[in-house]
Amino acid sequence: MLVALLAGTVFGLGLAISRMIDPAKVIGFLDVAGDWDPSLAFVMGSALLVTTPAFAWARRRARPLLGERFRLPTRSDVDARLVLGAVLFGVGWGLGGFCPGPALAGLFQGAFEVHLFVLSMLAGVALHRWGLARG
To answer: How does pLDDT run across 60-110, given as a tens digit for each residue?
Structure first.
Protein backbone atom coordinates (compact mmCIF):
# COMPACT_ATOMS: atom_id res chain seq x y z
CA MET A 1 0.00 0.00 0.00
CA LEU A 2 2.87 2.35 0.74
CA VAL A 3 4.34 1.83 -2.74
CA ALA A 4 0.90 2.49 -4.30
CA LEU A 5 0.57 5.69 -2.24
CA LEU A 6 4.03 6.82 -3.30
CA ALA A 7 3.35 6.05 -6.98
CA GLY A 8 0.02 7.89 -6.84
CA THR A 9 1.65 10.87 -5.17
CA VAL A 10 4.39 11.05 -7.81
CA PHE A 11 1.76 10.73 -10.54
CA GLY A 12 -0.36 13.51 -9.01
CA LEU A 13 2.67 15.78 -8.64
CA GLY A 14 3.56 15.15 -12.28
CA LEU A 15 0.04 16.11 -13.33
CA ALA A 16 0.22 19.29 -11.26
CA ILE A 17 3.71 20.29 -12.46
CA SER A 18 2.75 19.72 -16.11
CA ARG A 19 -0.45 21.73 -15.51
CA MET A 20 -2.65 18.88 -16.74
CA ILE A 21 -4.97 19.80 -13.86
CA ASP A 22 -5.63 23.17 -15.51
CA PRO A 23 -8.67 22.85 -17.82
CA ALA A 24 -7.59 25.87 -19.90
CA LYS A 25 -4.22 24.19 -20.59
CA VAL A 26 -5.91 20.92 -21.59
CA ILE A 27 -8.49 22.62 -23.81
CA GLY A 28 -5.66 24.61 -25.44
CA PHE A 29 -3.98 21.29 -26.25
CA LEU A 30 -7.20 19.84 -27.69
CA ASP A 31 -7.91 22.93 -29.81
CA VAL A 32 -5.85 21.86 -32.84
CA ALA A 33 -7.88 24.05 -35.21
CA GLY A 34 -7.47 27.20 -33.10
CA ASP A 35 -4.82 28.46 -30.69
CA TRP A 36 -3.15 25.08 -30.22
CA ASP A 37 -0.81 24.54 -27.26
CA PRO A 38 1.34 21.45 -28.02
CA SER A 39 3.13 21.39 -24.66
CA LEU A 40 1.03 18.55 -23.24
CA ALA A 41 2.17 16.34 -26.12
CA PHE A 42 5.60 16.37 -24.46
CA VAL A 43 4.02 15.27 -21.18
CA MET A 44 2.23 12.40 -22.91
CA GLY A 45 5.34 11.49 -24.90
CA SER A 46 7.36 11.39 -21.69
CA ALA A 47 4.78 9.06 -20.17
CA LEU A 48 5.14 6.74 -23.16
CA LEU A 49 8.92 6.79 -22.83
CA VAL A 50 8.55 5.43 -19.28
CA THR A 51 5.56 3.13 -19.81
CA THR A 52 6.61 1.34 -23.00
CA PRO A 53 9.84 -0.18 -21.64
CA ALA A 54 8.14 -0.90 -18.30
CA PHE A 55 5.40 -2.94 -19.99
CA ALA A 56 8.01 -4.76 -22.10
CA TRP A 57 9.96 -5.58 -18.93
CA ALA A 58 6.80 -6.69 -17.12
CA ARG A 59 5.86 -9.11 -19.90
CA ARG A 60 9.20 -10.90 -19.47
CA ARG A 61 8.69 -11.46 -15.74
CA ALA A 62 6.73 -14.28 -14.11
CA ARG A 63 5.29 -11.99 -11.43
CA PRO A 64 5.60 -8.39 -10.22
CA LEU A 65 8.08 -7.41 -7.52
CA LEU A 66 5.39 -6.45 -5.01
CA GLY A 67 2.39 -8.57 -6.00
CA GLU A 68 1.15 -12.05 -6.68
CA ARG A 69 0.41 -11.56 -10.37
CA PHE A 70 0.24 -8.94 -13.09
CA ARG A 71 -3.15 -7.49 -13.89
CA LEU A 72 -2.66 -6.62 -17.54
CA PRO A 73 -5.47 -6.24 -20.09
CA THR A 74 -6.39 -9.52 -21.77
CA ARG A 75 -8.97 -8.36 -24.31
CA SER A 76 -8.04 -6.82 -27.62
CA ASP A 77 -11.42 -6.68 -29.40
CA VAL A 78 -13.24 -3.44 -30.13
CA ASP A 79 -16.94 -3.52 -29.27
CA ALA A 80 -19.72 -0.94 -28.98
CA ARG A 81 -19.20 -0.45 -25.23
CA LEU A 82 -15.52 0.35 -25.75
CA VAL A 83 -16.25 2.83 -28.55
CA LEU A 84 -19.10 4.49 -26.61
CA GLY A 85 -16.91 4.77 -23.50
CA ALA A 86 -14.06 6.30 -25.52
CA VAL A 87 -16.44 8.79 -27.13
CA LEU A 88 -17.94 9.80 -23.77
CA PHE A 89 -14.48 10.14 -22.27
CA GLY A 90 -13.24 12.28 -25.16
CA VAL A 91 -16.30 14.52 -25.22
CA GLY A 92 -16.14 14.98 -21.45
CA TRP A 93 -12.43 15.74 -21.60
CA GLY A 94 -12.91 18.24 -24.42
CA LEU A 95 -15.88 20.01 -22.84
CA GLY A 96 -14.67 20.06 -19.26
CA GLY A 97 -10.91 20.03 -19.67
CA PHE A 98 -10.63 17.27 -17.08
CA CYS A 99 -10.02 13.56 -17.17
CA PRO A 100 -10.18 11.41 -14.02
CA GLY A 101 -6.51 11.47 -12.92
CA PRO A 102 -5.95 15.21 -13.25
CA ALA A 103 -9.37 15.92 -11.75
CA LEU A 104 -8.52 13.92 -8.63
CA ALA A 105 -5.14 15.65 -8.40
CA GLY A 106 -6.90 18.99 -8.91
CA LEU A 107 -9.24 18.45 -5.93
CA PHE A 108 -6.59 20.05 -3.73
CA GLN A 109 -6.92 23.32 -5.66
CA GLY A 110 -10.35 23.78 -4.11
CA ALA A 111 -11.98 24.99 -7.33
CA PHE A 112 -15.74 24.39 -7.46
CA GLU A 113 -15.57 23.12 -11.05
CA VAL A 114 -13.15 20.33 -10.13
CA HIS A 115 -15.35 19.20 -7.24
CA LEU A 116 -18.41 19.27 -9.49
CA PHE A 117 -16.60 17.23 -12.15
CA VAL A 118 -15.44 14.59 -9.64
CA LEU A 119 -18.92 14.31 -8.12
CA SER A 120 -20.40 13.93 -11.61
CA MET A 121 -17.77 11.34 -12.48
CA LEU A 122 -18.56 9.34 -9.33
CA ALA A 123 -22.28 9.58 -10.08
CA GLY A 124 -21.60 8.24 -13.59
CA VAL A 125 -19.60 5.33 -12.17
CA ALA A 126 -22.39 4.53 -9.70
CA LEU A 127 -25.01 4.75 -12.44
CA HIS A 128 -22.96 2.44 -14.66
CA ARG A 129 -22.52 -0.13 -11.86
CA TRP A 130 -26.22 0.08 -11.08
CA GLY A 131 -27.05 -0.54 -14.74
CA LEU A 132 -24.69 -3.52 -14.88
CA ALA A 133 -26.22 -4.98 -11.73
CA ARG A 134 -29.70 -4.73 -13.25
CA GLY A 135 -28.54 -6.66 -16.31
So the answer is: 988 988 888 888 788 899 999 899 989 988 888 888 888 888 888 888 877
Q: What is the DSSP letter of 56?
A: H
Whether the CB-CB separation of 3 and 66 falls below 8 Å is answered with yes
Please state, in angstroms and rounded to a whole number, the distance separating the CA atoms of residues 101 and 94.
15
Domains of the chain, residue spans: 2-134
15 touches 7 (CB < 8 A): no
Whether the full predicted model's pTM is greater than 0.85, yes or no, is: no
Residue 104: which of 8, 4, 1, 5 has the closest Cα? Answer: 8
What SS3 class is residue 49? helix
